[in-house]
């Protein structure tokens, strides 16, 4: 019950161990019922990344750096790389259909670059699907992965800006060209802070403040004959045309020594 009644501003420090997907579903249903004014989004990870005080940390990867604080010069360099990758993306997808919004909103360009692991961005990958998140958490069957549960404002349309919440939410399926396969299988969303560009790392950028629960899964018993994980080959389909484009962008950027 303490898991269901905690405030959104509190960081939920304790992981709840769940032994099976069947056990997890009704717990998440209760959390959703107690957070009816929000939508639940999920993120599956191989481990829980903790700060020195023991609290979870969930920064978008453009703000991540292990061990020391993130220098402004390094952050600016990452933003420059993001700008160049965005330009290359627009050049390489110009022949595809339905790109009007993609050309207008940089955040939509970032969502593709983030989801296809091209370069660090100010966006964080989440999903509306508990099964997708659980599948990611259990990709490495040797580890007891972690599922993070976030309570976020209800999304509307392709990209939603919440000025009072100072955040944005992108429905990747709507942002991507229809030929893209990965967004279909992952039911992906990208969330970030708004305004979208921040020139320094700050605790307000940490999405851990929106955590309502986190679960550690028992990798030995989590999936069974009734509930199966989504195969890694389906989460990352190899014949995805947008993957080929993003691989080309990544290779081009790698040859630019200044980035």
How would you describe this structure to a colleague?
The strands form two sheets. The protein has a four-stranded mixed β-sheet with strand order 1-8-4-2. By secondary structure, it is α+β, with helices and mostly antiparallel strands. The chain is built from ten helices and eight strands. Helix 3 crosses helix 5 and helix 3 packs across helix 10. It is globular, with a radius of gyration of 18 Å.
Low-confidence stretches: 1-11
Total number of helices: 10
Helix content: 25-40%
Cα end-to-end separation: 49 Å
Q: Globular, elongated, flat, extended or rod-shaped: what is the shape?
A: globular
Strand content: 15-25%
What radius of gyration results from the CA coordinates?
18 Å
Q: How is the biggest beta sheet arranged?
A: 4 strands, mixed
Structural class: alpha+beta
- Give, in order, the helices and strands: HEHEHHHEHEEEHHEEHH
How many beta strands in the DSSP annotation? 8
The mean pLDDT is 88
Strand order of the largest sheet: 1-8-4-2
Features:
single chain; 259 residues; alpha+beta; 4-stranded mixed sheet; 4-stranded antiparallel sheet; 8 strands; 34% helix; 17% strand; globular; disordered N terminus
């Amino acid at each position: 019950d303490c898991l269901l009644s905690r405030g959104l501003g509190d960081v939920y420090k304790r992981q709840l161990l769940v032994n099976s997907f069947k056990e997890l579903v009704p717990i998440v249903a209760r959390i959703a019922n107690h957070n009816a004014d929000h939508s639940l989004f999920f993120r599956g990870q191989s481990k829980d990344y903790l700060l020195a005080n023991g609290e979870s940390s969930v920064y978008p990867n453009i703000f991540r750096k292990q061990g020391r604080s993130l220098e402004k010069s390094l952050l600016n360099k990452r933003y420059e790389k993001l700008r160049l990758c965005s330009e290359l993306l627009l050049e390489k997808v110009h022949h595809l259909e339905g790109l009007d919004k993609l050309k207008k909103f940089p955040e939509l360009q970032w969502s593709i670059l983030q989801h296809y692991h091209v370069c660090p961005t100010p966006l964080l990958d989440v999903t509306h699907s508990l099964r997708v998140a659980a599948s990611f958490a259990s990709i490495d069957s040797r580890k007891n992965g972690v599922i993070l549960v976030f309570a976020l404002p209800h999304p509307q349309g392709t990209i939603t800006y919440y000025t009072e919440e100072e955040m944005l939410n992108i429905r990747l399926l709507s942002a991507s060209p229809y030929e893209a396969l990965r967004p279909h299988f992952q039911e992906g969303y990208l969330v970030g802070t708004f305004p979208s560009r921040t020139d320094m790392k700050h605790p307000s950028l940490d999405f851990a403040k929106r955590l309502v629960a986190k679960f550690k899964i028992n990798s030995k018993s989590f999936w069974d004959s009734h509930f199966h994980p989504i195969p890694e080959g389906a989460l990352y389909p190899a014949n995805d045309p947008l993957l080929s484009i993003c691989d080309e962008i990544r290779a081009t950027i790698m040859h630019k020594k200044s980035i």
